[in-house]
Amino acid sequence: MFFYASAASQEKLNTAPREPHRPGAILVARPVARPLAPVTLALIAGMAAPAWGLRLPEPWLLAGGVALYVALALLWWQRRPARFLPLIFFGLLGVAFSQQAWQPDFPPGHLTKLPQHQNLTLFGHLNRPGKLAGDRVQLFMAAVAWRSPWGWRPVAGNLLVLAPAPEPPPVGTPLVVRGRLAPPHRLHNPGTFNRPRFLAADGLFREVRLSDPDRLIFLAETQDYPW
Description:
There is one protein chain. 32% of the residues lie in helices and 24% in strands. By secondary structure, the protein is an alpha+beta fold. It folds into two domains: 38-102; 111-218, CATH 2.40.50. A hairpin with a 2-residue loop joins strand 2 (136-148) and strand 3.
């Protein structure tokens, strides 16, 4: 008992006294054991935020990201602790990544730039096998051109066509579709999955629903443009 008490007393005597902090001195934060864990969790939370209903305009994201980046650079230059600013920065970065993946900023010649809910005529090819869905067939079409008031114009993008076709033709078949472009329909039944998000992950941001089979024309493989 006396031995342990002496050892503890000797350890306290050998411990160097702590130097008091001088007024105005910059306190250095203790290093974190796992510095990437908090920012990784903040990035994941930001990427999942749009699925929870959070939507931020792109100008707000850009302004907030630039302001936080400048603030972090100034704090690093002055060697001051950043505290929670990196978590907010990576959270905004995750939100920007998720929104860009869900609704990317497409070039002017993309399908998403064409008028919606108007009867348009499009030409393209089937770029993957179709699927039977009840009394309809799902056709995956790579659009090539659309008929504008001034004639045919080039266009790009994948299109989901739902039509009452008896059987999907083989991949590579050229076709002409006349219908109304619209964002993918979202099912509002309780427990259903997010269909627009599911199709966006597959590169499909527009669909055409046809009730008249005459609005879907399959061309011969030797035919190219219908004009």
